[in-house]
Amino acid sequence: MIRVLLADDETMIRAGVAAILSTDEDIEVVAEAGDGHEAVALAQRHRPDVALLDIRMPRLDGLAAAEELKRTLPQTAVVMLTTFSEDAYIARALGGGASGFLLKSGDPRELLTGVRAVAGGAAFLSPEIARRVIDTLGGERLARTTRARDRLAPLTEREREVVALVGAGLSNQEIAARLYVVEGTVKAHVSAVLARLGLRNRVQLAVLAYEAGLVADA
Q: What residue spans define the domains of the chain?
């Protein structure tokens, strides 16, 4: 069972998101919060697997709440859920350790896929967010692709396969099944690649995979 905390200051939005999550028998909403402070307090009490946080909330916004959760409850995966797609929000959320970023206007299936992905240790960006990260958070596309491929050049072929599958949003368990190896081997590959490339988390690795054009090959 994937235990989820949901935080949004709009009651009807919370109800709608909770209703979507309830369609998956493996997902349970264990707590709901109306602001960032309440979200942090409830997360510390319930220790959910995933925290779905709206960005704009009173008292403490979702971005600040995400940073606090990653500091105090690193085992809880944080997904930002918002109507706002400005670059500053995306950059701060990803820099603060968020494992995913979803738009409220997206397909409800993305919500379920995203929650399952981050609960399994993967990163997940809605397609629109992934495009914005690639297209707007950096320089010209070709130059970024070249730089990304240069960074990945020292990796082994198997490590590149793992990076591509991380970029595609697969969990360690799913990657292990795809590559016919044990999950511990995948974890070792991911940890080694993150250390070698100087990356903080799987989200940054997923973005690099997108920029290098590896995801289409996954």
A: 2-135, 139-217
For 49-101, the pLDDT digits (tens) are 999 999 989 989 998 999 999 899 999 999 998 886 666 777 777 777 788 88
How far apart (Å, rounded) are the C-alpha atoms in residues 74 and 179?
Answer: 28
Q: Are 51 and 38 in contact (CB under 8 A)?
A: no
| Fold annotation for 139-217 | Arc Repressor Mutant, subunit A (1.10.10)
DSSP notation for 18-33: HHHHHTSTTEEEEEEE
What lies within 8 Å, CB to CB, of 72 at 6+ separation is: 40, 44
Token duo for residue 183? 């999950």
Distance in angstroms (rounded) separating the CA atoms of residues 46 and 40: 10
Cβ–Cβ < 8 Å for 96, 62 = no
At the top level of CATH, which class does the domain 2-135 belong to?
Answer: alpha beta
Can you tell me the distance from the alpha carbon of 144 to that of 131, in angstroms, rounded to the nearest whole number?
Answer: 13
Residues 94-132 have pLDDT tens digits of 777 788 889 888 889 999 999 999 998 888 888 778 777
Give the HSE-up count for residue 59: Cα atoms under 13 Å, Cβ half-sphere: 13
For 179, list phi and psi in degrees, rounded to 5: -95, 0
Instruction: Please tell me the distance from the alpha carbon of residue 198 to that of residue 167, in angstroms, as a whole number.
Output: 17
Stated length of the chain: 218
Radius of gyration of the chain (CA): 17
